[in-house]
Amino acid sequence: MIKLSDYDTRPPKDIDKGEIKDQTEAFAERLGDLHQLLLAEQKHAILVIFQGMDASGKDGAVKKVFRKCTHNNINVYSFKKPTEEEFAHDFLWRVHQRVPAKGNIQVFNRSHYEDVLIQRVHGWIDEERYKKRMNAINAFEDLLQFDNNTLIFKFYLHLSYEQQEKELQERIDEHDKNWKHNPNDWKEREHWSEYMRCYEDVLNQSVLPWTIVPVDERWYRDYIVAKTIVEGMEKLNMQYPRISE
Amino acid sequence: MIKLSDYDTRPPKDIDKGEIKDQTEAFAERLGDLHQLLLAEQKHAILVIFQGMDASGKDGAVKKVFRKCTHNNINVYSFKKPTEEEFAHDFLWRVHQRVPAKGNIQVFNRSHYEDVLIQRVHGWIDEERYKKRMNAINAFEDLLQFDNNTLIFKFYLHLSYEQQEKELQERIDEHDKNWKHNPNDWKEREHWSEYMRCYEDVLNQSVLPWTIVPVDERWYRDYIVAKTIVEGMEKLNMQYPRISE
Q1: Is B77 helix (H, G, I), strand (E, B) or coil?
Q2: Which of A45, A57, B41, B156 is the most exposed place for a label (fewest CB within 10 A)?
Q3: What is the pLDDT of residues A117-148, one digit of tens each?
Q4: pTM of the predicted model, to two decimals?
């Protein structure tokens, strides 16, 4: 039973920042190679899901972790408020269209989990629909795994309430961050404890487990995410295919 | 009147490779910044088209030139043989769906130009349809410019017949390039002079001009492409938006 208050939002105290950064660099390099191998082999698909509160560093994680991957055969999709057409379908309709083909990495910046988080926090769905949606998500993620060899990574970017305030304030104070400022983020912040409760339910009710990433220090976020993806992909034992004679 | 035989496929002789590589690095760094600015400002879209013979280094150009751009708000699409559904539409139908929104860079690895190149070389379209398609392409590119502030870069990767043979042979000889080997590339190579003639017509009949990039040396290719995109984007005079008070 996961309780988020048991999880630190900061790195372990005895850790060497310089050493961690070197390791992150090495993981990023290796991820570049693994991405190439994934494309060459065409046997597996990779789906990477980032969820977290506003200013938890989803964009930054994308930027840092995949920085040695070429732009071929990798795509990042940021889920926003559904369009009218999307709302006129089930909640997985727009998501299904974006899942990766074999040979590709697909990154979701937010995801189908918004439909059991923001929608539940604001009471736009009732508890019965919430439960049905969680079951549907578990079945959907299973489908991607068994029917298209999709390796799925799910990262919950675990940010403290205090750090969020600092990050949001920076968007006001720093000129080149102004474009990220959104007054609505401050309103959503008022629902913090309700969000935490709903995240905990998601973390506990997901069949496919999450990685809970301490993100108050961004360099540690990058390390955990890069390490998790690389170690997961290494297990696929991918090989460059040879020409058949 | 462009004649491809007037254009070198190799770098100028008096050029300093080390210095060029340093400049390419600086252009790539700057492109990373300009990409961020593009996203922040949300006023312009960028479309980058790569065309060239097999093994002319389209994938490599994508990898090197955009290596400092984050994976958010940039997408690379590789056009392949049209699907049955795509064939059942006009040739621009599938292309139109992939053009960039404001704030985004879209890279086309091959493009709508295949429909006036491979299709013409093999006689799958007649000359009348070829001319109509060129007119349609010119109108289409104009539309993207005037109606969505799209800055379009078109690169013809200019490879020599001799260098192509070396590159294709490497795909057979080098184990980690085997996956790129395609016997069909050797067959297409037999139509080399016809391809050159058709490329020349495209270069001469495009309203929006092309950059002809010498690609026999890959480091020079990267330099020309990066420099062209950066200098073009600098002219947009993009600014980080400030918060309205």
Answers
A1: strand
A2: B41
A3: 999 999 999 999 999 999 999 999 999 999 99
A4: 0.89
